[in-house]
Amino acid sequence: MTENNQRRSKQKKEKKNKKRKLLTTIKILLVFFIILSFVGAGAVTGLVVAALKDVKPIDPSKIDTMLDENSVILDKNGKVIEKVQRSGLRTVVSYDEIDEDLKNAFIATEDRKFFQHNGFNYTRLIGAIIEAIKDRHSPRGTSTITQQLARNLYLPHIKSEKTLSRKIKEAYYTIQLEKNLTKEQIFEAYMNTIYLGSGAKGVQAAAQTYFSKNASDLTLVEAALIAGITQNPARHSPIITKKKADVKEDDYILDDSDEQYTIVFNKKCIDRFKDVLYFMKVSGKITEEEYNKAKNVDLKKILKPKRLNRSEISSYFTDLVKDEVINSLIKELDISKEDAYNMLYTQGLKIYSTLDLSMQKKLEAIYKNSKNFPNLVIRKDSSGNILSKTGSILLYKRENILNNENYLVIPKNHYKYDTNGNLILYKNKRLKFIPLYEKGKRIGISVAVADTYKIENNQVVIYKGGRVNIPAQYKSYDKYKNLVVSKEFLDSNPNFFKKDNHNNLLISKENYSISNKGSIQPQSAMVIIDYRTGEIKALVGGRDIKGELLYNRAIKPRQPGSAIKPLAVYTPAIDNGWTAASIIDDVPHYDRNGNRWPKNWYEKSSNPKYTGYKGLVTLRKALQFSMNVPAVKVAERLGVNTSMEYLEKMGISVESKKNPNGSLVKSGPKNDMNLSAMALGGMTKGLTPLEITSAYGSLANKGIYIAPHSFTKVTDRNGNIIIENKPIKNYVVSPQVAFIMTDMMKSGVDAGTGRKARLANMPVAGKTGTTSNNYDAWFVGYTPYYVAGVWIGNDLQIKLREGSGASAKLWKKVMEEIHKNLPTKQFEKPEGIIRMAVDTVSGKLPTKLSYKDPRGSTVRQEYFIEGTQPTEFDDVHVEVEVCSESNKLPTEFCPTTLIEKKVFISRPVPYNPSEHGGFVPADYKYEVPKTYCDIHTHNTVPSNPIDSLPPGTIILPNGTKLLPDGRKILPDGTIIFKDGTIVYPSENNNTTENTNSNIIENNENEINNN
């Protein structure tokens, strides 16, 4: 074939193709017109029937209810702290409020015949088709303003689809809008729904975002710039928000005030801006002179960006507000969750929150300083991986698991190939193989990537692991529970696993997931509440306080440790007739299996038998020094059901089918109906910082629990109240019980385990809490103004170097800022409280012996609820004669000059260390001696004992001697003491007998029965 023939044939073929494309396009256009006519006439058949069968009826006359307007969250003073947004900001403006230049700019650019057509611009459509055929692309730019509105309002989820079904639906909605609305109404709705970049929906939001002004006040240049965004918001928005590290030298900075981000000018908006001005000129909306002047304006100089979509504070609090509002809308209005969600995000609600913005900022400022948090106790292996307390790898060092190219590395000794060519990945290495079940049947195996860590700015940062994406049908276990990846998968995916030069397997980042956002450790949460109202004033749910929808640790349960004691042990005790002066003996206690339990935190491993128990202590002291044994003994006497009852009255949630996230677990194989949970805080789930803080608030609030809440009311866009938040109130205990508990916890802060939380000019009542191995550290306390709770811990089980002292210090640092300039107040004492002296060893009225305790006076002033004060006198302190040289009971051989009276204690329930593993309580050495002097014996008595008898001794005819102190010495040397004790002659010098033993036994039984 000649070259001319080839050329001729090619031209003929191209002409034929063009002709075919034109005929096809005309056919499509004709079908489109036919469909439109059918829809307009109501004759719905064939394809149209299929497309419109699921179309919901609409009422265009109510279009104003569909115009999304962002709800706002206000602080306690009415200041906007967040515009609630789902995918952009929006504020509705009327047609008359829209600047004339802005109207003209949009009409000239988007739909020049808007006021003339009936919803479809047929001339423009045909022209676009012909142009498309000529330039060989799909028709574009044919949608009218009405069509765009129909998409935005009724087809938001499928408006990007290129299907005929979507076009038919759009045409249907377009016709309905044109039939029922005026052009002004359509245009107003369009201007309030169009997305204009940078999170702004609608022209009012755009005017605020780019120029910090209203849509009614825009200049020609500003109007043209906004109208130009519509075609491609991502490309034509005049501003770009960049991370500071990404800002280039040639970027023009518009705003650099944010800590993380910088706003720069987008040069790509200039050409589109000039296009809009040109369209306005050729449409006759502006003159040549206006055109030339406007196109030469330096756009960088007129932009005044306003960061509407960025809050001054973290989203922890506002996320909580939104959750509470949605739940309240569902309950109060009896609507679905979906309807409540849409109402929040589209109906322009005003939410009046309880937030104190100043307080929140102070709280967050303190949380930003890493020096306010304790270090971690970390054990590492030789590769730098962090180990658990059992020695297994808890966290991999990130560079050990990912190489420089972000490949996931499986070491050569972590895998093998079997004889069939299957890949065997060994268990308990960098990958975890987790079986997946459904209805008791295993349906697959998840291949989980281990968590990793990095050291950033001297802080441990944890990155959550993800998974390796191997389809289920190619995975199985071998008999050792290793993972088997089938040869079939390896053959069909040869690049899934690669090998490096050391024979390690490599998995590319396309085939696995792992978090790139780390979480600094240790973590922490804090809640501050006005306990008189239940209003949450400030809240932080973690140290990573940037972003939205953050993991809020303030509403996640953690084991409370000893912070549970005031709530579940001592408040129920005081409410059930115990007093702050009631006595508990801190000596060994045993569980059901006969094991010594619990241990006190002050039991030292170096010398446990002499430091593990304090002996007789008051309830006040037991709480003040967070003693475990007394707490368990009191809870045991009360019963765990009683403890649980009080926790529920204080607002602690219970797990149930309706509330699976409840904190308290009352049934099941693992539950909280035990002393470990109720007395020591070793709970199945734990308590949330928000719950435990509000529970303490019930004691601060004179025994009345008020449910914590984050908002007070919600109004619609017209100011009508649709929700008035009236929190639940519970009577927990009387004001008198609450006051006693407050004063007991105040002792713990003044001179106990919580002393690091003391404030200089304000009383504090509170309690520390630490769990085993310092995994969790708490301080919850209150002043006459606020109650606040702090938790510090790790997202994984890593030990803190400092326990509850760190939480107490953080609590103090925050509350010092909160209480600056507040007048000093004292906790209010209610009527029905008396104060009187009490002996702190017996819990009874003091005697003169109470002041002579060998440790010093054991008398203190104590508060009592009227009617519960002691009426009996101290009988634990006794005065006994002893030999001053041996400090034991004297014998007849002790010189009278060495015999003196001393004060001792006599335990109500005798304690014998030999029966308890040799554990000796600290007060045991102050008990009445149980043995007789072994220093002075018959060997030390002079040869003529008569000469050594004291003056006043009477010698009877039978040789019996009656001594002035009441002793009687028989002729055979037997000594009978005044109290009936008998000491036999020297050959049985250490043998004694007490003729009053039956009286002691009776007294013991009497005590036990009380």
From TrEMBL:
Which topology term describes how it sits in the membrane? Answer: Single-pass type II membrane protein
> Where's it found, cell-wise?
Cell membrane
Query: Any idea where the Glycosyl transferase family domain is?
Result: 78-254
**Record field: transmembrane:** 21-52
GO BP term, pick one: proteolysis
In terms of InterPro entries, this protein maps to: Beta-lactam/transpept-like (IPR012338), Glyco_trans_51 (IPR001264), Glycosyltr_51/Transpeptidase (IPR050396), Lysozyme-like_dom_sf (IPR023346), PBP_transglycosylase (IPR036950), PCN-bd_Tpept (IPR001460)
Disordered, as annotated region: 987-1010
Q: Which Gene3D superfamilies match?
A: Biosynthetic peptidoglycan transglycosylase-like, DD-peptidase/beta-lactamase superfamily
Q: Which residues form the Penicillin-binding protein transpeptidase domain?
A: 525-816
- Catalyzed reaction equations: Preferential cleavage: (Ac)2-L-Lys-D-Ala-|-D-Ala. Also transpeptidation of peptidyl-alanyl moieties that are N-acyl substituents of D-alanine; [GlcNAc-(1->4)-Mur2Ac(oyl-L-Ala-gamma-D-Glu-L-Lys-D-Ala-D-Ala)](n)-di-trans,octa-cis-undecaprenyl diphosphate + beta-D-GlcNAc-(1->4)-Mur2Ac(oyl-L-Ala-gamma-D-Glu-L-Lys-D-Ala-D-Ala)-di-trans,octa-cis-undecaprenyl diphosphate = [GlcNAc-(1->4)-Mur2Ac(oyl-L-Ala-gamma-D-Glu-L-Lys-D-Ala-D-Ala)](n+1)-di-trans,octa-cis-undecaprenyl diphosphate + di-trans,octa-cis-undecaprenyl diphosphate + H(+)
Enzyme Commission code: 2.4.99.28, 3.4.16.4
Q: Which UniProt keywords apply?
A: Antibiotic resistance, Carboxypeptidase, Glycosyltransferase, Hydrolase, Membrane, Multifunctional enzyme, Protease, Signal-anchor, Transferase, Transmembrane, Transmembrane helix
Q: Which GO terms describe its molecular function?
A: penicillin binding; peptidoglycan glycosyltransferase activity; serine-type D-Ala-D-Ala carboxypeptidase activity
The entry's cellular-component GO terms read: plasma membrane
Q: Which NCBIfam families match?
A: PBP_1a_fam (TIGR02074)
Function text: Cell wall formation. Synthesis of cross-linked peptidoglycan from the lipid intermediates. The enzyme has a penicillin-insensitive transglycosylase N-terminal domain (formation of linear glycan strands) and a penicillin-sensitive transpeptidase C-terminal domain (cross-linking of the peptide subunits).
Q: What is this protein called?
A: Penicillin-binding protein 1A
Native organism: Caminicella sporogenes DSM 14501
